[in-house]
Amino acid sequence: MLANFVPTGDDYLRYLPEIIMVVAGTLVMLIEPLLGENKRTAFETVSLVAFVAALGAAIKANTIPGASFANMVIVDGFATFFTVLVIGVGILTILSSSQYLKREHAASAEYYALLLFSVTGQCVMATANELIMIFIGLEISSIATYVLAGYLRDDKRNNEAALKYFLLGSFATAFLLYGIAWIYGTTGSTNLADIRMFLLTPGTEHNVTLASTAAALMLVGFAFKVSAAPFQIWAPDVYQGAPAPVTLFMSAGPKAAAFAVFLRVFMTAFQPITSRWEPFVWSSALLTMIIGNFAALTQTNIKRMLAYSSIAHAGYVMVAIAAHNQIGIAAAMFYLAAYAFMNIGAFAVVTHFSRQGEKFVNIEDLAGLGWKQPVTAGLFAIFLLSLIGVPLTGGFFGKFYIFKAALDANMVWLAVLGLLNSAVAAYYYLRILVVMYMNEPGEATLSLQPLGAGLRTTLWASALGTLVLGIFPSVLLNFARNSSALVK
Amino acid sequence: MTLLDAVIFLPLAGFLIVLALPKDSFEAIRRFSLAASVVTFILSLGLIGPYWFKNPGKFVFETDLPWIDSPPIRYHVAIDGISLWLVILSTLLTPICVLVSWNYIQKHVKQFFAFLLLLEFGLVGVFCALDFFLFYVFWEVSLVPMYFLIGIWGHERRIYSAVKFFLYTMTGSVLMLVGIIYLYNQSGTFDYTKILAGLQSGSISLSYQAQLLLFLAFFGAFAIKVPLFPLHTWLPDAHVEAPTAGSVMLASVMLKMGTYGLLRYCVPMFPTAAHNCAGWIVTLAIIGIVYGALVAMVQPNMKKLVAYSSVSHLGFVVLGIFTFTQQGFDGAVYQMLNHGISTGALFILVGFLYERRHSLEIADYGGVATPAPNLSAVFMITMLASIGLPLLNNFIGEYLVLQGATLVYFRWTVFAAIGVILSACYMLWLYQRVFFGRASEDLGHHMPDLNFREYAIIVPLIVLMVWMGTFTQSFIPPISASNAAILEPMREVHVRNTPPVQRRAGKELADAR
Predict the structure, then answer these.
(1) Mean pLDDT of B322-335
(2) Quick check: is A398 in a domain?
(3) Of B354, B292, B440, the residue nearest B100 (C-alpha)
């Protein structure tokens, strides 16, 4: 396999999105000293342009699919899907951040640079074809996100969030790395296809136990990254403590990328030993849904509540993985896209509403928002209905498709319990609707300023995405289904 | 594009336009909503056409377009004689509800009328959808506006009631969703007509256990909506706390989603399971009839009384369906319409009283007949209709249901008939306490008689009560034809599937035939 270590032109084209983002991230940091205090919007412009260019490059890369850099990364439909998704998340994060950073007096180049690097890491994860690349991508993404979580370094909660995230995250990464080492020791390769071939080769049965152990270790690492039970403990604290736009980012981008590698590793390399890991993913899925939904019921802080809701939604995606069929992969992909839209929308509203120092983050503070700012509240209502899973929203169709996959795999009980869970979930989302529309406006609502341009764009774009995915899901679904066939 | 599509989508267009209107121009919003709903109603009358000239007994105004290519979900709508009247009931009551809310709704006027129109869209859709996915979409879409109608414009305990209503329905419907997906996985289609044909011809074969579970999954969702005892506890809360228009739409149309679902989907698709479960379902229905009536009798609150009377009346509908006889089916459908008209009218009249006196407690009234004789007169007619007095509409429905029950098992009739007697007790007693006696000083001054708007609301309903009670032939033929179309293949399938040793309901049915 020493064939081609000299990259070809196509290799660069396939990797152009990452190249653009890394260059832009470095550039942003370099120009910081050259710009005065009042020219800080330049960072935003540069990173936005970079993201849009990267998005274009990612879509272009899909026209020349194939493996690159000595088979270490691969551009296929599946990879492009997630690359586009995480870059899209990056764009919406930038749009939601500028107002926030201005009001916290914290606009600086490193925020944008870290964001660009983090998304780069996620793109590497999405395109990785090999365990070491997965690890590298995961680390690029995670380390940037750790720093972002503690971005307002004078804020106690930010520090707590970053520290917790970092310590627990490193621990989980160590598990992952140990799993990689183990699988290398067992199979002699880190390439996903080679691992699969090895496990399929007759006469390797005695190695199955070793491979299963490796799979278990890696499952721990991935479950942490996607905040699946029982490794979800960090999520509420980190989501609550981190700056609102960073939470917005964390709950969509890194999570989608982590699920991308989760899917790719378990559906390709570990596909031959499905029977070994399926029960664990099955029970983790159920546990994640139950813990997420029931814990969210009693929350009063909206960020914390959305954190638990995000755990619950990870549980739904785990159902799709547990189904381990092609529809399951497509369903997970579709759901992650729909989830990115609705969750970004919800956190964008939180970003807008919380005000300086994140004073107003209690659910009760939203009282009467529906009458004070009907448009913001109306869009928020769309996101909440989508999170509940009401038809004509992306959230519903995603859920529908996931549970269809589960029933295809004969997991009737998992589907029934999962759907009952979503009825439980309706309760806490409804509470926000109750507060927004059925309570009289309070002090927090009355003093609310109108939406800024960036956040407004994010909100409308997310709402549009949520509704389009709900009413015309075929657009995305066909792509997801076609590319899910590539994962094998 | 058929007339039916126009009837379905006009309210949605109305909803979007109302949203775009400026929020302070109350009068424009009201007028526009009225115009939109009246036009929808007039168009929906055109749906009677095919039934007027000949009686097809099958689906007409069919539109079948692809919506999502894979899984193959289609926009497939059509109506038969059952949906026809339920659609018209929805389109009739919406303009009436707009008029009812004309002065009553003073805050957030724009959102109120917008939600009312969105509700109409969902309700009409539910009765026309022939694709399971589409049906589920409409089913849930109708839930959201009703949730807001109760929660925003309701009385004191509105939030509790709204959330309870939403969660009850949602729990039932997710189980139905599992059933729908399971059926799709077995048959490869969401199309109701194809699935039904497949089940009846045996080309989709399900084990009895699967049939039973599917039946229960659908039945659960519908029984919560009906609501069947003991799943009825959301209903009194929701009805009492909702604004008048909400109570009317809820009682008159939304509850029918449940009974319609039983009749259209549950029973024809899984006839064997339905026959085997009929015993306990009918028992629950009869308990509901008697229990609802008894609880209604002791209510100090007028709206709650009417709400419990709904539990009782809907018990008749379920009883009628689970007799699996032509009479029972016809009576059930007719009773759905009757209940929609007469209970809707009762809620409206209670609303009139509330607008005058701002109380729902019976004890706050007495002697209303003296200052408001016309109001008392229409209340009397409505009440008598609700009791089931001959020549008024409810009598026909109840009679047919009881006749159907007699054909199957006479004891059912005896117990159910107790409900009819009890309904006379609570209604007459209510009437006596509210309208007769000496009017207190301050009540006399605050009890003007009906005004023009109120006449416009109530007179059409009174006319319908008399019309439906006397000229049954204007309504029944399409219903009977469609019911026969449902029953015939069902009987064949049932006979084919039934082992020689029969459960009670099945045996009685066989004897009756």
Answers:
(1) 89
(2) yes
(3) B354
Taking CB atoms and an 8 Å limit, are A430 and B163 in contact across chains? yes
Instruction: Tell me whether residue A55 is in a domain.
Output: yes
Helix, strand and coil content of chain B, in percent to the nearest 5, comes to: 80, 5, 20
Q: What is the 3-state secondary structure (H, E, C) of chain A?
A: CCCCCCCCHHHHHHCHHHHHHHHHHHHHHHHHHHCCHHHCHHHHHHHHHHHHHHHHHHHHHCCCCEEECCCCEEECHHHHHHHHHHHHHHHHHHHHHHHHHHHCCCCCHHHHHHHHHHHHHHHHHHHECEHHHHHHHHHHHHHHHHHHHCCCCCCHHHHHHHHHHHHHHHHHHHHHHHHHHHHHHHHCCCEHHHHHHHHHCCCCHHHHHHHHHHHHHHHHHHHHHCCCCCCCCHHHHHHHHCCHHHHHHHHHHHHHHHHHHHHHHHHHHCHHHHHHHHHHHHHHHHHHHHHHHHHHHCCCEHHHHHHHHHHHHHHHHHHHHHHCCHHHHHHHHHHHHHHHHHHHHHHHHHHHHHCHHHCCCEHHHHCCHHHHCHHHHHHHHHHHHHHHCCCCCHHHHHHHHHHHHHHHCCCHHHHHHHHHHHHHHHHHHHHHHHHHHHCCCCHHHHCCCCCCHHHHHHHHHHHHHHHHHHHCCHHHHHHHHHHHCCCC
**Which residue is it, tokens 């606009």?**
A107
- Give residue A22's pLDDT band: very low, low, confident or very high (50, 70, 90): very high
Determine whether the interchain pair A408/B185 forms a contact, defined as Cβ–Cβ distance below 8 Å: yes
Task: Please indicate whether, in this complex, the C-beta atoms of A420 and B181 are within 8 angstroms of each other.
Answer: no
Count of the separate structural domains present in chain A: 1
**Is the complex ipTM higher than 0.95?**
no
3-state secondary structure of B350: helix
Q: Which residues is B77 bridged to in the sheet?
A: B63, B129
Distance CA B377, CA B383 (A): 10
Asked if residue A294 is part of any domain, the answer here is yes
Residue A1 lies in a domain: no
Q: Is A441 on the interface with B (CB under 8 A)?
A: no
Q: Are B505 and B279 in contact (CB under 8 A)?
A: yes
What are the extents of the domains in chain B? 273-513
Query: Which tens digit of pLDDT belongs to each residue from B248-286?
Result: 999 889 999 999 999 989 888 888 888 888 889 999 999
- Judged by a CB distance cut-off of 8 A, whether residue A426 touches chain B is yes
* Spatial separation of the C-alpha atoms in residues B291 and A284, rounded to whole Å: 45
Q: Does B216 touch chain A (CB under 8 A)?
A: no
The phi-psi region of residue A124 (left if phi > 0; otherwise alpha if psi is between -120 and 50; otherwise beta) is alpha
Other beta carbons within 10 angstroms of residue A4's beta carbon come to: 13
The partner residues of A128 in beta bridges, in order of sequence, read: A73
Apex B115 CA angle, B112 and B118, nearest 5: 155
Q: In this predicted model, what pLDDT tens digit does every residue of B134-144 receive, in sequence order?
A: 999 999 989 88
Tell me the pTM.
Answer: 0.91
Residue in B with minimal Cα distance to A479: B70
B417 touches A: beta carbon within 8 Å = no
The H or E element that residue B129 is part of is none
A314 token code pair? 């990870």
Residue A430: domain span: 9-484
- Are B144 and A385 in contact, with CB atoms under 8 Å apart? yes
In Å, how far from its chain's centre is CA A139?
15
CA pair distance A331, B469, nearest whole angstrom: 53
